[in-house]
Amino acid sequence: MSAEILAPPPSVGDVARGRVRRALRRRTVAAVLALLVAGTFLAYLMVGDTCYPVDDVLRVVVGEQVPGASFTVGRLRLPRAVLAVAAGFSFGLAGATFQTMLRNPLASPDVIGISSGASAAAALAIVTLSLDETQVSVLAVVAALAVALLVYVLAFKDGVVGTRLILIGIGISAMLDSVISYVLSQAAEWDLQEASRWLTGSLNNAAWRETVPVLVALAVLGPVLLSRVRHLSAMQLGDDTAAALGVRTERTRVTVIVAAVGLIAFATAAAGPIAFVAFLSGPIAARLVGPGGPVLMPAGLVGALLVLVADFTGQNAFGTRLPVGVVTGVLGAPYLIHLIVRSNRTGGSL
Amino acid sequence: MNRTGTRHVPNTTVPPSTTVPPDAVAPSRPPVLERARARLLWLGVAVVVLAVLAPASLAYGSRDIPWSDVWSALGGADATLGEAAASKRIPRTVLAVLIGAALGLAGAVMQGVTRNPLADPGVLGVNMGASLAVVVAVAYFGLASPTGYIWTAMTGAALTAGFVYAVGSLGRGGATPLKLALAGAAISAAFASLVTAVVLPRNDIAGGFRLWQVGGVGGASFERTGQVAPFLAAGFVLCLLSARGLNSLALGDEVAAGIGERVAVVRGVAALGAVVLCGAATAVAGPIGFVGLVVPHTCRLLIGVDHRWLLPFAALLGAALLTAADVIGRVVARPAEIDVGIVTALLGAPFFIWIVRKQKVRAL
C-alpha cells in the first residue's frame, strides 16, 4: 500500500490498462475455476467403488436409463455431487461476503458462530424433533439470523470493532457447539453419522430432498449477493465514502447480511457446517484474483471446488471413508493459525 | 495501605498493631484486620459450599438416593441399589473436586502470569492442545499406558501454551489481552478441528469424541485419579509457591524486578505449575473450559487481588463450581447425563463475552 502512495501518480493510460488487466485476470481465474469445478464434478461422478466411463455418466446426467450406472451415479453420486457444489458455493460466497463487509478474514460465519447456530437448530430439528426438510431449513435460517443479530448486538459498543466481534462470536460459537453436543448426546444412541454431520459437516445424507432446498436458496440469494458486489466494494472504503458514491449503506448491509446468513443456513441444514470452507474460500480467491478485485464469485467457485475435492478425497483416498468436514478441517486449521500469526506480525486490524 | 498511621509517619509501612504512634487514634477495627476477617469468612463459606456440594453430588443424579444410603455408602456399603449407585459416584465426585480445583487454580495463575483477565486453560487453547497431543499419540503412535497419557498431555499443554503466547505477543503492543485471547481461541478452534479429524473416524480411542472434544468426569475411577494425583499435587505446590511472586508481577515487570523479584523465574515456575495442572486435568477429564476463567474473577470480587489468598480460594471455588456443574449435568437431562464440559461452556461463555465487552479495544 505505502509503495503505491509514494510512487508518482500513474497516468490515465496506466490506470485504464491496469483496470483492464485486472478485469481480464479476474475473468480468467473465474473461468479456470469453473472449468476445474466441472472437471472435478465429472470425475466425482465417474470414480468410486465402481468406475463408469464418461459417456455412461453423461447419459445418466441427461436422464437416460443406464443399467447399474443409473442407480450408483444417478441416485447416489449425482445428488451428493450437486449438494457438494451448491453447499460449497453457498459457504464460499457467504463467507467472502462477511469477510469483505467486516474487512477481516477472521469474521467468517463459521468462526463467529453463525454456522454453529444453524447447525444447532438443524440438529435439534432433526435429531430431537424429527421435523421435515422444509421445517429444518426454516428453523436453521431463523436460528442463524438470530445468532448474527446477537453477535452484532453484543459486539456493539461505540461501534463494532473487529477483534471484539470475533471474540464474542467465538464465545457464542463455544456455547452453540455445546448445545450441538448436548443434542447429540440426548439422541437414543451416539450416532456417528449425525455427529459428523452436525459437528464438522458431512455429505453422507445427501439425497435430492436435501439438495433441492440448497439449490433453490442459492438460485434466489446468490444473485442478490453477486449484484451487490459493487456496493460492498464501495463500503470497504468506509460508510461515508460509500454513501457519497450513491450506495444506500444501511439497506445494502441488511440485505447482504440476510442473504449471506440465509445461504449459510440452507447449506448447513443439508450438509452441516462443513469446517472452515466459508473461512478459507475468500482468502484463497483473493490470492488468485490479486489485490483490489471483488472476490465473491471466485470465492463461491473456490468453495465448491474445495468441498468437491475434499469429499472426493475423504471418500476414496483413505482406508476409511472420512466425512468431508474432517478433510476441510485439517486443511483449514493450519491456515487459521497462519492467519493469526500473519495478522499479528503485520499489526493489522487485530 | 495503612490509612491510620501515614499522616505522621509517611513513607514507612507500619505494622498496625505494634508501632503505631501513640497520637494516632487507633480505629475500632483496623482495615487490614477487617479484610482478613472478610477473607476468612468467604473462605469458610467456600469450604461449606464444597462440603454441601460433594455429598449432594453423591445423592443427586439420574436416580436420587436417600441420604441414609449415601451415608452408608461412604462407609463402604453397597448392598442396596441406592448404596451401590452412591458408591459409584464417589470416584466421580472426587475427580470433579480435584479437576475443578486444578482448573480454577490454573486459571488464576495464568491470569496472573499473563496479566490478562481473559486467560483460561480453555480460552488459551492449552487444554485443547493437551487433548490433541493425547489423541494424536493414541491414534498414530500407539500410546496406551496411563502415565504416558499424562506426560503426553502435559507436553501438549506446554507446547501449546508457549505457542499461543508467542503468537499472541507478535507485533505491535506485545501480548495485549484481546490479542492473546484471540490467538488462543483461534488456535483452540483449529486444534478442536484437528481433534475431531483424528477421533471421529476411529472408534478405538478410549473415551472417544466426547471425552477428548468436550470433556467430562463420567468415566472416573479411583485408579485413574490415583495416577494423576501426584502430578496434580506437584502442580498445586508449584502454583501456590509462586503466589508471592505473582503479587509482585501484578505491579508490572519493571517494578517487580526493582523490588528484587526474579521475574523470569517467577513466571517460569508459575507457568510450569499451571501447565502441569492443565495437562494432568486434561489427561483424565478432557479439555474442560471456562472454569479457570469464571472462578478467578469471582474470587477477586470476593476476597481481593492478593494471590496468597486468591490462589487457594480459586482452587476451592473451582472445585465447588465443577462439582456443581457435574450435578447440574446429571439432574437437568434425566435419565441421560450432560458432560460437565458442556455445562461449563454454557455457563462460562456468557461470562467470557461479558469480560470481552469490558475490554478497551484499540480502534482500527
From TrEMBL, chain A:
Bilayer topology reads: Multi-pass membrane protein
User: Where in the cell does this protein reside?
Assistant: Cell membrane
Q: What is its main location?
A: membrane
Any one Pfam family match given in the protein's UniProt record, by short name: FecCD
Keyword set, alphabetical order: Cell membrane, Membrane, Transmembrane, Transmembrane helix, Transport
Report the transmembrane regions from the record: 29-47, 81-99, 111-131, 137-156, 165-187, 207-226, 254-280, 292-310, 322-341
Family statement: Belongs to the binding-protein-dependent transport system permease family. FecCD subfamily.
Q: What is this protein called?
A: Iron chelate uptake ABC transporter family permease subunit
